[in-house]
Amino acid sequence: MHFHEAIKYIRTKLDLSQKDIYEGIVVQSTYSRFENGERVLPIEVIEAFANRLGVQLSEIYNIQKEQDQRMVYIIDQTKECLNQKTNPDTVVNIQKLESLFRTAKEYKNTSLEFLRYYYYIRQHFHEFSPQIPQITVKDADYVYSELKKRKLITSIHLQFIIDFTVHFSDKRILDISNLFKNYDFKQISSLNSRYSYQLPEGLSNLADRSIDRALYQEEEMKNKLLQNADELLETLIKYQEIKYSSDHVILYKVSKYRYDYYIAKDEKEKQAAIMNLEDFLEELKYYITKSPVKHIYAEGCIPSVENTLAGKLPLKEINYIIN
After folding, report:
1. Which of helix, strand or coil describes residue 284?
2. 64: exposed, middle or buried (C-beta count within 10 Å: 0-12, 13-18, 19+)?
3. Three-state SS at 273
4. What is d(CA 141, CA 153) in angstroms, rounded to the nearest whole number?
5. Is pLDDT above 90 for 269?
6. Distance of alpha carbon 131 from alpha carbon 323, whole angstroms
7. Domain residue ranges of the chain, discontinuous segments joined by +
8. Cα dihedral 6→8→11→13 (10° resolution)
9. What angle, 0 to 180 degrees and rounded to 10, lies between the N-to-C axes of helices 296-309 and 267-290?
10. CATH hierarchy code of domain 3-67
11. pLDDT tens string 163-181
């Protein structure tokens, strides 16, 4: 489904006439040709049509995905397999998982969205079947090179950053992080509004990984990574002042308190950091007991907090919130 088809689909569902959409934007003949796929219009005009429909372009994009049965199958099956993986009372259906992987592999070169799920399945399920290879250095190199080509990081590129942060080298983490230093939040428009929830997770992933990597490095790289984490956290909290989310504040706190713990210069600072972590741990447990549904952010952060309080270095293996 293309933009013109999605616009027509939504308009029909809302029982609106063509005139309700085009009046004051384009003439009737231009709009009719657009809906019929006979006329290409500037993105600004399409955005104006979307506003008339009461939706954003990113929502139209999601509707397009929902109409693609291949994508519907991949998304639904991936969620089902993730639920089976994270539920101790269930086991992953290997036959369905392998079928899911074959489908993702078949369509991985047709769009970035399909490619993302192809990598995502490999990342989270490679240990369940020899048919599913794990992510390689070559894969990470390819994603990094594609990101470096982009003058504008769209929501799908940001999703790749979120997924691949754990696979990037220290230098590449620093390089990609520069995209978000002094970030212009005005970029988050109706064209790429998925940024509103992806950006905090991207910043959190980069900051947390910078902290983890710093603790295994020599002094120069260690300082660069810790400074990087500090700057990213500053960007993250500034964004929360604009678009608050309690889930994203949790991500900020877990990284900030861990950062304070590891940079403590004396026993007084260390004890203050420990108190913050202990209070935060109780806060996370409270969220879990009071939440009517599974609180993935609180549950995902607890192991990291407990590991820090135990005085251990961060785990080297990949461990992060599945989104």
Report:
1. helix
2. middle
3. helix
4. 17
5. yes
6. 23
7. 3-67
8. -70
9. 150
10. 1.10.260.40
11. 999 999 999 999 999 988 7
